[in-house]
Amino acid sequence: MANGKAALTASWGDVWLLGGVRTPFADYNGPLAAVSPTDLGIKAAREVFKRSGLPPQDVGAVITGSMAQASFDTYCLPRHIGLYSGVPIEVPAHMVQRVCGTGLEVLMQAADFVTHKDVGLTLCVGAESMSRNPIASYTMRGFRMGAVDFKDFLWEALRDPAADASMGDTAENLARQYQITRPQVDAYAARSFERALAAQQSGFLAGEIAPVKSEAFEREGFKPRAFKLKGGKELGSDTHIRPSPIEVLAKIPPAFGGVQTGGNSSAIVDGAAAALVASCDYAKRPGKPSLARIVAGATVGVPPEIMGIGPIEAIPAALKAAGLTAKDLDWVELNEAFAAQSLAVLNDLDGKGFELDRAKVNPNGGAIALGHPLGATGAIRAASVIHGLRRTGGRYGMVTMCVGAGQGAAGIFERL
């Protein structure tokens, strides 16, 4: 898949995760629809400082991820998240983009900053408003009045013109290649919903979630920011999780002419996550609440027309960089872009000697049940891994993503 070329890999010996939290995921055009990704990111950042007890004044770098131009101040998103969460004004901020793998890339870049740039503490944030993707035109400037060419940014962005395929089409390509059937994808989706519902009802998910309510953010010398939730009520849990037995899923019509439907594909949601990544020297200071070590990461390229297969190359590369095997993993978050894509990855890994224990893959459900806010998902899944390992006593966990346009990413974490 990677045409014989090595994946981009890295391993880190002394990079520590000191805190991680996320907002609830809200369905497309749901409670968070009016909230910009910048404000979602500020909320998550403030919460990670609050929960960890670490002062924002200690931060030496801010790294963020977000995909869509979902507000007019998107250019300022990294800087504003830092400023309004209390980070010193002299601390720089930037944004990264690796489509679905963006949130994980944020954490890996933070690990590099800590290792190579002498940064003691880095604020990492992934934030995405799928609801606020604009209706846009790229052909209006300089054209005569009335030459209207507006399109739905989100709809168009989910199509890869190089492969001449939508993201859903790439999943259908994998379904055909791996002979995956509609009953199989519906069964996979039903399991995702069942696990997520159980995790929500037991209170397991609550440990990684910061409730969101209408709020204002202030910093002396700057204009205040504020947002209001649609409906005005506090949002404390994910909204897409629901009872979804296979009998119900089987009645949903195909979305791309094959096995994928709106019920067995990742949910379109809004959300954000924040984490604090630190050097060993900083983490060893008295009172620092270390959660995990960031062990290794890998990114690869795969054919765009089967972009969902990316993890089959990224997972072995990350394991090799970490000096581990698949059997060492106690918790795996495999992003469920599509059920057929996830099954193709799992089936392919089985045939290559990297079999993943199905009970340890998405124990709390995945993106089919919870949702996939593009630029935030990787960071959110990392928070899930850490909270899951701490709850169950496991040692090693992994986040792995397929990436639109043909890439794969994986990151490995160790509970302390």
Lay out the secondary structure:
Layout: E1 8-11, E2 15-22, E3 26-27, H1 37-52, E4 61-65, H2 77-84, E5 93-96, H3 102-116, E6 121-128, E7 135-136, E8 151-152, H4 153-157, E9 159-160, E10 165-166, H5 167-177, H6 182-202, E11 215-217, E12 225-227, H7 246-249, E13 269-279, H8 280-283, E14 292-301, H9 311-322, E15 329-334, H10 339-351, H11 367-370, H12 377-392, E16 396-403, E17 407-415
Parallel strand pairs: 4-5, 4-6, 15-16
Antiparallel strand pairs: 1-14, 2-13, 2-14, 3-13, 6-13, 7-8, 9-10, 11-12, 14-17, 16-17
Helix pairs in contact: 1-2, 3-12, 5-10
Task: Write structural notes for this entry.
The protein has helices at about 35-50, 75-85, 100-115, 155, 165-175, 180-200, 245-250, 280-285, 310-320, 340-350, 365-370, 375-390; strands at about 10, 15-20, 25, 60-65, 95, 120-130, 135, 150, 160, 165, 215, 225, 270-280, 290-300, 330-335, 395-405, 405-415. The protein is α+β, with helices and mostly antiparallel strands and about 425 residues long. The chain has a single domain (about 10-135, about 205-240, about 265-410), classed as Thiolase/Chalcone synthase (Peroxisomal Thiolase, Chain A, domain 1), CATH 3.40.47. Helix 5 crosses helix 10. The model has no long low-confidence stretch (mean pLDDT about 95).
